Amino acid sequence: MAVQTTTYALSGQRALVTGGSRGIGRSIALGLARCGANVAVNYRGAAEAAAEVVAAIKDHDRTAVAVQADVTDPKSVDRLLDAAESAIGPIDLLVNNAGIVRRSPFLDIAKEEWDAVLHTNLDGPFLVGQAVARRMVQRGIRGRIINVASTSSKDAGLNLTHYCVSKAGVSMLTKMMALELAGHGINVNEVNPGLIETDLTRGYLQNEANRQFRLSRIPMKRIGDPEEIVGAVLFLASHDARLMTGASVYVDGGVTIW
């Protein structure tokens, strides 16, 4: 899909995008840069991909840095924020995007697999969100935090118990963060993508039966592109969304209509 030109006034904003090296995170990082933000791109293992995102951001004449960190480890999170702030300044916009998916029947989910999904998808947004919010409060920054959840926060999915539970947790985390941080002038919202074709879903969608089954449940009859999540994030990051907090925005082709 061609890159969209819709923009919001984010000039001078200092954004951190977790899981920003690929897929939805990559598109969000580039979208923020197009709107004038400087961006710290967090990655766990995809150093080359993260470097490519940073290079693309710099093509928009914005400051960018790639920072390796494990969002499930508090010490690693502190190092992430220190490195990001050293490069682009105090963070006033956080996009908690890092996530993983595993597919296993409920009866076959091992504790290790459960932990891997819950740690990344739920502990990560909690740890990074809390650490960033603490710094915002200390500095009097009236910032924005956007959590990337999923339609799986609302709808159960076969063989996705751990994933659905983690994303449901993110939705309640968003509400609680919004409630407790509102008095500090920090807005916390979430975007819930539907089925988007990324590295996380491509293998699953290569099975034509899987693809057709999922398409049959999407009123718009198509699978999304990462770029199609960006507009919702840009809106929530902008001044236009200043009265919104604790909100869930679904970008899903209508799948949650059912």
Describe the overall structure:
By secondary structure, the protein is of the alpha/beta class. It has one domain: 3-Layer(aba) Sandwich (Rossmann fold), CATH 3.40.50.720. The protein has helices spanning 23-34, 47-58, 74-88, 111-139, 161-181, 199-205, 208-216, 227-237, and strands spanning 14-17, 38-43, 64-68, 93-96, 144-148, 187-193, 248-251. The protein has a seven-stranded parallel sheet with strand order 3-2-1-4-5-6-7, with helices on both faces. The longest helix is centred in the middle third of the chain and has 29 residues, at 111-139. Residues 13-199 form the Ketoreductase domain.
Task: List segments where confidence is low: pLDDT < 50 over at least 5 consecutive residues.
Answer: none
Quick one: overall form?
globular
Q: Name the strands of the widest sheet in spatial order.
A: 3-2-1-4-5-6-7
Give the tally of structural domains. 1
CATH architecture: 3-Layer(aba) Sandwich
Q: What is the CA–CA distance across the termini?
A: 27 Å
Query: CATH homologous superfamily, by name?
Result: NAD(P)-binding Rossmann-like Domain
In sequence order, what are the helices and strands, one letter per element?
A: EHEHEHEHEHEHHHE
Percent range for β-strand residues: 5-15%
Pfam family, one: adh_short_C2
GO molecular function: oxidoreductase activity
Organism: Candidatus Segetimicrobium genomatis
Domain Ketoreductase: 13-199
